Amino acid sequence: MANSTQQDAQPVCVAALYRFASLADCESLRAPLWQLCSDEGIKGTLLLASEGINGTIAGSPAGIESVVAHIRNWPGCAELAVKYSAAAVMPFHRLKVRIKAEIVTMGQPGIDPATNAGTYVEPGAWNALLDDPDTIVIDTRNDYEVAIGSFPGAIDPGTATFRDFAAWFERERGRLIGSGKPPKVAMFCTGGIRCEKASAFLKKEGLDDVFHLKGGILAYLEQVAESASRWQGECFVFDQRVAVGQGLAAGTHELCFACRRPVSPSDMRSPHFEAGVSCAACHGERTEAQRASYRERQAQEKLAARQGRAHVGAVLARTGDDLAE
User: Fold this and answer.
1) Where do the Rhodanese domain residues begin and end (predicted)?
2) Which of 288, 289, 269 is nearest to 279 (CA)?
3) 10: which of 26, 154, 230, 301 is 20 to 30 A away, CA to CA?
């Protein structure tokens, strides 16, 4: 009985992972991976594509390590990038292992981040690029993410999804690059996957001096001392934390469960903010019938919480940057 109690008291281990690698037969990889996750009680989402693997999963620490070790045995996946965090309760309701065209959607053919990505920049060396007047720094995240924090001087493409990045670059290429010698370009995102793929896109477009922040903003906030940090604001994350700050400390933002955008303490004072129903950003995007449905969902979730059970329709956490568009 004591062992069971100790095991139940362990926090849930959450692992956000990705790796660009050439996976020739995703179907043959999918079934054993799904079975292992199922046997270990793992929940969450894993995406497989010919370009690699990406996902966020949760379970016991031992179960997660079994899955990570399994993936690292695949060709080209020994250096699988994994970011760990803990949750008090299981943040996902089910397990999904899916085969997709891309592990992060950009919609640009002929890109191969596994062999032609830009140069990794370790978090400790990132400030030097920020200070280099010959370097263009681009934030490859979506507009609502950039709105709550970024590096000073970084260009915000104002994109709604990652698939908009290529079109933005084509429109702005002349202004950014000009007719002279192409500058160095440094890019960053939350966990590293989007800027890594964007770097391969820019190299395909003919740029040679392309860099991306290894491990993304999360690695920077974790590894760079606050006294040296250039980060301003908070970093939006696609899980139960919503946003984090220096040292990955919990941020001040909450999540609007209607539109999945971050909501700051000042945003909550808006007359259009209603917990679980709407925020100032999405109030005009939804009908009253939709808001009525959200109110009913919110009421059901509150009832489930009072009864000490999980509401089956609730979304306790989203998958991370690795699944974001």
Assistant:
1) 131-229
2) 269
3) 301
DSSP state of 65: H
Q: What is the CA radius of gyration of the chain?
A: 21
Burial class of residue 218 in the structure, from the number of CB atoms within 10 Å of its CB (0-12 exposed, 13-18 middle, 19+ buried): buried
Q: How far is Cα 24 from Cα 8, in angstroms, rounded to an integer?
A: 39
- Cite the active site residues: 189
Fold of 12-99: Alpha-Beta Plaits (3.30.70)
Buried b vs exposed e over 246-281: b needs ≥16 C-beta within 10 Å?
A: bebeebebbbbbbeebbbbeebeeeeebbbbbbbbb
Q: CA–CA separation, 313 vs 316, rounded Å?
A: 9
* Residue at token pair 């001087």: 153
Length of the chain: 325
For 119-228, give the CATH class: alpha beta
**pLDDT one-digit tens code per residue, 99-149:** 999 999 999 998 999 999 999 999 999 999 999 999 999 999 999 999 999
Other CB atoms within a 10 A radius of the CB of residue 65 amount to 16
Of residues 137, 168, 169, the one with CA closest to residue 153: 137
Beta pairing partners, 244: 235, 250
250 Cβ contact partners less than 8 Å away, ≥ 6 residues apart = 241, 243, 244
Nearest to 141 by CA among 113, 161, 121: 161
Q: Where are the domains of the chain?
A: 12-99, 119-228, 262-307
DSSP 287-299: -HHHHHHHHHHHH
| pLDDT tens digit sequence for 180-197 | 677 899 999 999 999 999
